Amino acid sequence: MDLTEPESLAPALAGAKAVFLLTAADFLARGNLQDVVDVVRAAGVPRVVLLSSQGVATKRHPSIHEDAVTGSGLEWTILRPNNFASNAYAWADSIRTQRVMAAPFVDVALPAVDPADIADMAAAALSGDGHVNAAYTLTGPAAISPREQAATIQEVLGTPIQLIELTRDQAREGMLAYIPAPVVESTLDVLGSPSPIEQQVSPDIQRVLGRAPRTFADWVSRNAAAFS
């Protein structure tokens, strides 16, 4: 199955009651989500949940994927996460081998969300009631800067970590190795100059799941082996 070949999805859609849509960062250049949604609708699937981005709500990212879903005539739910806690994996190799963490904008804080919370929200939207035509902003319980993330990782590991601040150009060069250029620029904009909305903690996880979002320390504790 391949999202760039929507017809290939038909066998998997037979009898499905809901579909979760997750696209790669470069999907806009390779495929058309509208075609995927058309196949989902033709298969008789009534509900779709899309993993989008808070950047769509703040106009940093295009809304074409959300538009395809919200205009489909299906029951839909949009999940708009902030920065992922798991983006810290980008530092894992240097922390593990050199006890060094390099990042730009080390004192700019964002409420990074644990991917496990995204999964729990997706499960609720896919199988529960009360989420039709809803867009949820997903964040952690508090804004946290790279400097604070380094301190958290250091505390969990019990070993000192050196923090090196990268320039925007240095960060861009590293990110271009695995992220499309337009996405790199918008990501650096968020990391370096977030809007007040992008720094706010959203109540949506608490409201839907009935519990507080997981902390960055929770995420590091569960994934400490990657940094050790």
TrEMBL record:
Pfam families: NAD_binding_10. Residues 2-126 form the NAD(P)-binding domain. PANTHER family: PRESTALK A DIFFERENTIATION PROTEIN A, PTHR43162. This is Uncharacterized protein YbjT (DUF2867 family). It comes from Kribbella solani. The lineage of its organism: Bacteria, Bacillati, Actinomycetota, Actinomycetes, Propionibacteriales.
